[in-house]
Amino acid sequence: MVRLTDMPDTDARHLREKECPPFDSEPWVTGPPLAGRRVAIVTSAGLHRRDDRSFDMRDTGYRVIDGALSANELVMTHSSTNFDRTGFQQDVNVVFPIDRLRELEAAGEIGSVARYHYSVMGAGWLPHEIEPTAKELAGLLKEDAVNAVLLSPV
Amino acid sequence: MATVQISLVREHTAKINPPRALWVPFELGRPIGPPGEPDFQRRVLASALGLLEAASGPVLADFPEDAPGGASDDYSGWVCPVNLAPPPASADAGEAAPVLAEIAKLRPWYQVGLERRGRTTVGVSGLAIEDAVTLLAGFLDDPAVASPRADLALPQALKFASEDMRAWYLEAATAKPGPNASKVLNDWFWNETAAGALALKVAAACRRSDDAALKTLGQRSLVPRAYWPLIG
User: What is the pLDDT of residues B119-178, one digit of tens each?
Assistant: First the structure.
């Protein structure tokens, strides 16, 4: 089950019917070589610290994930049940590749790993619904001198 | 700020047309690839981040490798580590009893998984697993049962109790190293366990409810779409 054509019909139909408005421009930001980049992860997997407030069913907010957090502190409260969770249960890097990012840092392939990463609960938000959150996150990422963001779905 | 995204649904990304994206041919829920495959995961990540050095865009690249470990519906490897054949039904045992009996059988495997991985994803309800089961069963007896947490309305408490129950079972089921295809595991939970049957009954009861939030919960957020035909 990796492509729409391989999915159960009900799942594939649901995804095909999703509204996907295109960007109204083609922004293109450049920067230093990868070895000079400070990289943060922004995931839409609904991850947060165990003690954080959970995501509710209609929640466009975000949660902060300290890059030094223990994997056991990360839980997921995404409203959707229609994606596999057994991978995340076995290995946090399936959804939040913090160990892999640190390995790329150690190998000199990226410059550094951001101190903070961020999580939202992606539930098919239209751009105008999630834009205020995105703008706030951009400000926080700039404060951490981040110049490369990995956007990861679930 | 430069961004690069992982794409799980290529058709969506092609329509949205973001600056940089790497489409990966993996199942939903596994954007960086399968668990326990660090070399593969690192290649995915390096491929995505490598797009930051593209000279021009937008660019939508395809990751060239399929996920290792076989298909999500590969039935050739995994078997449930314990025999969950239910005891003869007792008329007054209640809905929780068969689930609690399964939990007792599976508990050693849950502990093995916990110790091997050093982590658990169970706990979003804030309830002990037995209490989560009791809440779900109690809802079937009394749909007006109180939420056990002051900060969670009943629908959200039911959702998290159900997710904790499923995560607990699946973490126990994947404690043993080896093949564990996701569809096989989910088929087992929803078709063969008393816990799956309880969650399906809760979803059915929510769908019958006059409460809009409970109805929505039952219609969308307790049972994966692929298993909706099992809801009574």
Answer: 999 999 999 999 999 999 999 999 999 999 999 999 999 999 999 999 999 999 999 877
Give the number of other CB atoms < 10 A from CB of residue B40: 17
CB-CB contact of B101 with B198 (8 Å): no
Q: Cis omega (within 30 of 0) on the bond before A21?
A: no
**Residue B158: how many CB atoms within 10 A of its CB?**
29
For residue A80, list chain B residues with Cβ-Cβ distance below 8 A: 221
Q: Is-contact B162 B147, C-beta < 8 A? A: no
Nearest CB to B49; choose among A39, A94, A103: A39
- Closest CB to A146: pick one of B1, B52, B66: B1
Q: Could you tell me which of A83, A81, A47, A41 has the C-alpha nearest to residue A62?
A: A47
* Whether the Cβ atoms of residue A142 and residue A68 lie closer than 8 Å to each other: no
| B207 interface with A at CB cutoff 8 Å | no
C-alpha to C-alpha distances, B226 to A7, A15, B96, B151, B167, nearest whole angstrom:
10, 13, 25, 31, 18
Report the sign of the C-alpha dihedral through residues B61, A10, A47, B213, in that order: positive
Residue B70 contacts residue A41 (beta carbons within 8 Å): no
pLDDT digits (tens, 9 = 90+) for B63-121: 999 998 877 777 677 778 788 876 556 656 789 999 999 999 999 999 999 999 999 99
Cis ω on the peptide bond leading into residue B58 (within 30° of 0)? yes
Distance CA B38, CA A41 (A): 17
H-run or E-run covering B206:
helix B194-208
CB atoms within 10 A of CB B43: 17
Interface ipTM: 0.95
* Euclidean distance between CA atoms A102 and B112, whole angstroms: 27
Interatomic CA distance for residues A40 and B109, integer angstroms: 35
Structure-block tokens of residue A84:
């596999």
Cβ atoms within 10 Å of B35's Cβ, excluding its own? 23
Residue pair A90/A16 in contact by the 8 Å Cβ criterion:
no
